[in-house]
Design goal:
The chain has one domain. Helix content is 42%, strand content 15%. The protein is built from 3 helices and 5 strands; from the N terminus they run H-E-E-H-E-E-E-H. The longest helix is centred in the N-terminal third of the chain and has 28 residues.
Length: 106
């Protein structure tokens, strides 16, 4: 059977969706297997995949998607499983914004 590029992309996207769903189920299972007093609803799966199942705050959203104080390209998701892209770090590397950021009082 001849497969088109679209079929291959659809298969890859299905695999990615199932991996994310599996990681989400794993994170929920991990937290529910702890005693209620020890549940933080955030941590690492398999020692390196970050998860955070708490309600996101504005500060966590900002720090994940536009953290001018960090040079890390990938940061943990503010809600969910996996990583997000720090747009500020990308813009710094492209030279669009300066490497120094204004001091903020949080």
């Amino acid at each position: 059977m001849l497969r088109t590029a679209r079929d291959e992309i659809d298969a890859l996207l299905w695999i990615i969706r199932m991996a994310v769903l599996g990681a989400l189920v794993g994170a929920i299972w991990r937290e529910l297997s702890k005693p209620p007093s020890e549940r933080k609803w955030n941590g690492l799966l398999l020692g390196f995949v970050p998860y955070d199942l708490r309600v996101p705050t504005l500060a966590r959203l900002r720090d994940s998607y536009f953290n001018t104080r960090s040079s890390a390209l990938f940061t943990s998701q503010p809600v969910g499983v996996g990583w997000s892209v720090n747009i500020a770090a990308v813009l710094k590397r492209l030279g669009v914004i300066g490497t120094r950021s204004r001091a903020r009082s949080d």
